[in-house]
Design a protein that fits this description.
The structure holds two protein chains of two kinds. By secondary structure, chain A is mainly alpha-helical. Helix content of chain A is 49%, strand content 11%. The longest helix of chain A has 21 residues. The N and C termini of chain A lie far apart (43 Å). The chains are: A mainly alpha, B mainly alpha. Strand 3 of chain A pairs parallel with strand 1 of chain B.
């Protein structure tokens, strides 16, 4: 999407699938990585003619895609657990399922 | 409370490590290029195809989303680096926003997998909050503007 003429570009489109099927992995990468890259390159000529104020590209990405997180889904779990237990308020159903899920997942 | 702390501790101990990815992507942005990222992405897809993704240390159980965003973030670094040579009077800045768990349909799918619904989880960022962060990042004044960086909740975070 090109916003406000030709000097801002925000790439937001993405898909998320919960599957181990190769075709789904391929589709995810083609949309989230190769797709974003292609769009950026295609729109580049527009950005190049931008105002002296400078053009900006903003990629809407994910904390899961940070290398220091060990490129795993772990960070999301931890953040979600933290979110659930924020303010030390407990909801028994959520507690049990999350703990169960985490333990199963890493056993 | 103790159970939760133990659980979190176990999570941290058992974080996944992928040395191949680290060796390829954890380098200075100047040493990184698009071909390297593409080759890592291709290797990932090959590993998924041959059923070796878990063995090779990729994100487990089909969370291709993490890997796709990892490659996207790496690309942000490469792109920002290559754009440093832009003419001074026409700079192009590129940054990545990493909002964390959000209250969207996408997160709802993930929560559903865990048998939860969004009303049971607090602390998720709303689409409005994150869109404001995106817009402010897009409209920041030029002076001292960052490029090739990652942001969450208005703060810069490390790759």
């Amino acid at each position: 999407m090109v916003v406000g003429g030709d000097d801002e570009q925000i790439n937001n489109a993405a898909v998320q699938k919960f599957s181990q099927v190769y075709e789904d992995a391929q589709e995810t990468l083609e949309t989230n990585y190769f797709g974003a890259k292609t769009v950026t390159k295609e729109l580049f000529p527009l950005l190049r003619s931008a105002s002296p104020a400078g053009a900006r590209i903003v990629m809407v990405s994910s904390q899961n895609g940070l290398l220091r997180v060990g490129n795993s889904v772990l960070h999301l779990h931890v953040t979600l657990v933290a979110a659930v237990f924020a303010d030390l308020q407990f909801e028994s159903v959520a507690d049990c399922r999350l703990l169960q899920f985490l333990l199963l997942f890493w056993s | 409370m103790t159970e939760i702390l133990i659980c979190l501790f176990i999570c941290f101990l058992q974080r996944f490590e992928n040395n191949y990815v680290k060796s390829k992507l954890r380098v200075d942005a100047q040493q990184l290029n698009e071909d390297i990222i593409d080759s890592v992405a291709t290797k990932y897809l090959e590993d998924v195809k041959t059923g070796r993704a878990n063995e090779e240390g990729w994100a487990p159980n089909g969370y291709q989303y993490s890997e796709s965003k990892l490659f996207l973030n790496a690309y942000v670094r490469v792109l920002a680096c290559s754009l440093r040579n832009q003419p001074k009077d026409c700079p192009i800045f590129v940054n990545s926003i990493c909002p964390g768990p959000m209250d969207t349909d996408m997160a709802a799918g993930y929560l559903k997998k865990m048998g939860l619904d969004r009303t049971q989880v607090r602390g998720l960022a709303s689409a409005e909050e994150v869109s404001k962060a995106v817009i402010s990042l897009a409209l920041l004044p030029r002076d001292g503007y960052a490029t090739g960086k990652f942001f969450t909740d208005g703060h810069e975070i490390a790759f």
